[in-house]
Design goal:
Length: 365
Amino acid sequence: MAWQRPPRRGCGSLQRCLLGAALLLGLRLCAELRRASLRPPASSAPPGRAPRPPRPHLPPAPGLQRGASWRQVTYVRSGRRAPPGGGGSGTPKPCCAPHGSPRRKGPRWHIDLQPWAGPARSLDEEALRFLRYISTIQIACDHMSTDSLATDSSPTKKPWSVCLDDRFGLAHQIHSKQCRLYSLGLGSDDTHFEVGMANDGCEVHRFDPSVKSAHVLENERLWYHRLSIDWRDPHPAVAAQKPYSNTRKLGTILNEFGHHKIDILKADLESAEWKVLENLILEDVLEQIGQLIFEIHLHWPGFEVSGSDSSVVRFWYSLLKELELQDFRLFHSYKDLSKPQIFLRKNIFNASSCYTLSWVNTRWK
């Protein structure tokens, strides 16, 4: 009788065994992932209490060694670790500043307008609410820098006030020479505030399109840049023809300079402040700013702000309420009586056409 091979047991072939094992492993992995997705997050708040949003945190600039302070004030990011005391070796070169990391959050597309001040939706209702709002201090500041009001009555000097209370950390940053100030202007010759802050220990960057050179280091801590801060970057076609265009959004400047934090942002933009402020809100740049000092202008709606007079004032008010929603509090309000009392081209409401307002980010540490 001829020998016959005994019948195979188990899997029909090695390939079938491997296929069955892979299928079983995949099913177990899917089950584990499903169980993990059903678990509550580790940071969930206790029952009955709303979770507190985490304080925004941006990573340190690339190249810094572990343990180095990412708030180290440097104009150009470098792979070298800065020596103690805040100074770097050599003079920084603004032409070579690398691009920073991209922003983490997507932009918003519009400001959420506040409800109308009254049923009539009239200019009187909106203006009275707005003027009352900018004249009401929201948080007390015991130590303010108001040296421009102390002895000099020159009309070119303005009350640019910062809050130096210890709870907000600016005084410590100045003393440790870790403070950074951005000053946005349009042709103003008044640099009293910027020079004073630089002498006190802040790294100051003044942006003004009327500056003669692209980047000028006036002294050890004071930079002048021939750049205009706008609410939009140049159109790509225009940027391609003019690669060194002197108009940028503030978020773009921060990325180009490699700066993650601004302790003070001062702006005197001659009615462009409303659209610039809108851009800071929509692109979440505010979380990188410690204090805001804005000169606002009320004699006309402002660049590219349109609509009826009442809707314009409602838009202004909504922008300022956005600051409040992001934990900025008004600590100083100055009504410039040297300017005409004009409100949207009308001599009404006994309002100046110019106010200087100062806010502090209460989450700033």
